[in-house]
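dumping this here so i dont lose it
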């Protein structure tokens, strides 16, 4: 066999899901790799591939990457027939990939355990990296550390950034006890995207920040600056024991693929924390003040304090409030809910520009979160 020749490369990955009907499986997600030659390694990032993403309601998307990851992609919507989206659930022992009959084999195939040199990801114990694991949605990362002064992080571009004291911005009134987190610029008729039950009351709003230095060509000098990383509704001073991704009413965890992310959408790089029961009047005030520019509008206020928070509206009838904040751009932003050891909500956080990575402490030891 010539040097560099690779054989037995996997060319197709199909993710099937069992949902409400026990007799059939949804072809939820598939990837097909088209290797350009025998020398191309398995799953090479430059390998052309086609990805198909299907949902049970009939929606679907086909993505073709002719130059592999990092190249141009061609995305089209799919409208497939029922039998193209679903397959009959095979009986035990009759799965096509393991069936001698399907592959035209005379004898049943035999399988041997392969030696695996590479390790699994941290936290997976002794599971080999090549073993199948259930798909995991996007993980929160060390969110609590972003609000702990002195912690060292990096965003991958700046080698070292130091977390500074969170900036206390103001308060949010949630007399209904139902906090909403949504994009104020999309889907108003459907109500807020995410809601989180919390005790009725007034809650502190703060902004996580990091400080770092960089070389400024315009000044021809090293300069220091401070930038925000997250915004938070602080529900309790109790530390968060866990963080979870909040789900919207249509989000089904059974359909999540690896690193799947859900949250609120924005076309205007804006999110907001809102009293959910007063959503309609608060959003109406927001639009009248920001979009229509009505002067001297009672219940509307522009926030000009240098923070990520930009506007505030107040509903006179209920006392509920809305506070909008800027994000780094358009797209989908997860909402992370922190819970205490006993399960109570202690904070609700939105990362405005991705999750930085923790760095080692200066003595070479890991921080608690990094460990």
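and the seq i came up w/
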């Amino acid at each position: 066999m010539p040097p560099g020749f690779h054989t037995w490369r996997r060319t197709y990955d199909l993710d099937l899901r069992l949902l409400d009907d026990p007799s059939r499986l949804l072809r939820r997600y598939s990837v097909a790799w088209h290797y350009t030659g025998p020398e191309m390694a398995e799953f090479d990032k430059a390998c052309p591939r086609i990805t198909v993403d299907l949902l049970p309601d009939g929606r679907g998307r086909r993505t073709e990457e002719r130059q592999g990851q990092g190249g141009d992609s061609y995305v089209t919507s799919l409208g497939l027939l029922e039998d193209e989206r679903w397959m009959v659930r095979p009986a035990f022992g009759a799965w096509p990939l393991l069936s001698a009959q399907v592959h035209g084999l005379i004898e049943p195939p035999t399988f041997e355990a392969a030696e695996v040199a590479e390790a699994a990801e941290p936290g997976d114990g002794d599971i080999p990296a090549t073993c199948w694991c259930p798909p995991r949605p996007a993980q929160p990362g060390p969110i609590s550390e972003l609000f702990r002064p002195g912690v060292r992080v990096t965003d991958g571009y700046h080698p070292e950034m130091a977390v500074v004291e969170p900036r206390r911005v103001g308060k949010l009134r949630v007399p209904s006890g139902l906090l909403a987190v949504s994009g104020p610029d999309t889907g108003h008729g459907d109500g807020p995207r995410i809601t989180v039950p919390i005790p009725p009351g007034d809650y502190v709003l703060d902004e996580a920040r990091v400080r770092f230095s960089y070389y400024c060509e315009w000044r021809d000098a090293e300069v220091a600056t401070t930038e925000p990383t997250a915004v938070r509704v602080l529900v309790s001073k109790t530390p968060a024991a866990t963080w979870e991704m909040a789900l919207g009413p249509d989000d089904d965890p059974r359909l999540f693929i690896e690193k799947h992310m859900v949250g609120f959408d924005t076309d205007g790089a804006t999110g907001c924390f809102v009293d959910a029961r007063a959503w309609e009047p608060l959003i109406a005030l927001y639009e009248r003040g920001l979009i229509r520019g009505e002067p001297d509008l009672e219940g509307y206020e522009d926030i000009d304090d240098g923070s990520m928070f930009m506007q505030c509206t107040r509903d006179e009838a209920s006392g509920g409030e809305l506070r909008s904040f800027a994000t780094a751009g358009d797209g989908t932003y997860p909402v992370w809910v922190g819970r205490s050891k006993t399960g109570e909500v202690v904070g609700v956080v939105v990362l405005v520009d991705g999750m930085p990575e923790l760095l080692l402490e200066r003595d070479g030891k890991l921080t608690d979160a990094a460990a």
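Helices lie at 82-85, 279-291.
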